[in-house]
Amino acid sequence: MGRLCRVSGSIACLAGLLGLAGCVPHDHGWAASYKEAQDPKIAVVMPAEAPSIAQEFFESSVTAGHLGIDVIDKVGTPVIAVAAGQVDASFYEPAYGNRVVIDHGPVTGGVSTYTVYKHLEKRLVQPGEQVERGQQIATLGVTGALGGGIPHLHFEVWRGTGKRRHPVDPQRSWANGPGRVTCFDPAAPAETTGFRLTYPVGCR
Fold it and tell me: Which PANTHER family match (predicted)?
């Protein structure tokens, strides 16, 4: 295991199994740097009220990758849908614990976008349910062997059709633009074209 540190609310840094060396200096408003080997790297702007990102997306053909972002917060924190869609899966499995997958439907070219939420404490939706942006779908947890004992949400974005899907860096798709982490705001107008997401954990 790597070093551990204390931050507000007894949230520790992700280390060891989560592959992060060092500490998360703030529990809100901070984002980890990309690994050196990741290309491209996106400049990230974090709102001060957003729970921090402890690990960024990393895709590799030669080593184990990290195909999403890790958002740290306390166990039981609401996890919310990043966009409207239909629940594609909701289940428990040993490595990643409680998981929810949402199908957001096809965009340009008929390619669908899916979002994946892992290490959940509780799942609050079932396959086939329709969800809206900002709707609570789960609570943040520490389930699964790869959770590392650290309360966090592992969040992924996938695109494709059927079983042929590929991971996409979530930082590419925020509602405010690439790298501009966007907190959910019920008063904000929904986008009418393409796929844009808001943060999967509520901002304070």
Answer: MUREIN HYDROLASE ACTIVATOR ENVC, PEPTIDASE-RELATED
Instruction: Give the per-residue pLDDT at 19.
Output: 37
* Paired strand residues for 36: none
Contacts of 148 (CB under 8 A, 6+ apart): 14, 15, 16, 17, 18
**Token digits for 20?**
């992060």
Which residues form the domain of 117? 8-172
Instruction: Give CA torsion, residues 120, 123, 124, 126, to 10 deg.
Output: 140
Q: Does 165 map to a domain?
A: yes
pTM of this structure: 0.87
For residue 67, is it within any domain? Answer: yes
Residue 4: count of CB within 10 angstroms of its CB: 13
The CATH number of whichever domain residue 60 belongs to comes to 2.70.70.10
Please report whether residue 183 resides in a domain. no
180 lies in some domain: no
